[in-house]
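Run log, item B.
One chain of 226 residues. Sequence copied directly from the ordering sheet:
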Amino acid sequence: MSGSSLEEQDRTDERDAAAATDGAGDAVDASPDDAHIADTAGDDTERPRSARAELVLTPPGPERRAMLKRQAVTGYVEHPTVVEFSYETDPATLHERWRESVGSPPCHMVVDATGSGEVPGPRVAADGGSFAAEAAHPQDLTGLCMKWQDALEEARGRGDLFVAFDSVTALLQYVDLREAYRFLHTLVAGVHQAGARAQFYLDPDAHDEQTVSTVQGLFDAVRRIG
């Protein structure tokens, strides 16, 4: 891409971020068992009807996140291919939690942004499901995007895809809001292009109202869990 094209893209991203700050929709309060979803501003990109990127405003906690993932795939598909981003939990632990709470996915890939540097090698479970993880430093958004693209390519043709991003709050500890917005925009576009279902988690108590409003404008739906 030429220098002028890059400058034009930067200006476009800045305009998108400003527009999202001014016009993002409000979230809807709900209990963990409430299926009510609030539709918010999304893009006009043509995508499969099944594609949906949801932002879940929820306090942190592994048990809560496991419950949300289980609810997300219920009624969608019994054993989806899974791609997870993790800033706080190591890949092996994530895989075991998924197997215990949902069941073993046929293919489970983890993009590890914990910064631990300890990444398990690919493996095949006794039931035939595969598990793989790749890592990049949490501040290396280019590297994380490359791992994301690798994971989507690996998932292609393996059936229905579910994506979990844990979490936007952790991401914002490493990069500023403008960088995070552009990064998340890329991920949401990838979800749409892959025809996937996705959940991105954010702790609303950890951010000011403007930050929450800006971020939620990127998503097809926003749900608040009290």
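Observations after the first pass:
- The beta strands are 29-30, 38-39, 52-57, 81-86, 107-112, 123-124, 130-135, 161-166, 197-202, 221-225.
- Helices lie at 3-23, 62-73, 91-101, 141-155, 168-171, 177-194, 209-216.
Flagged for discussion on Thursday.
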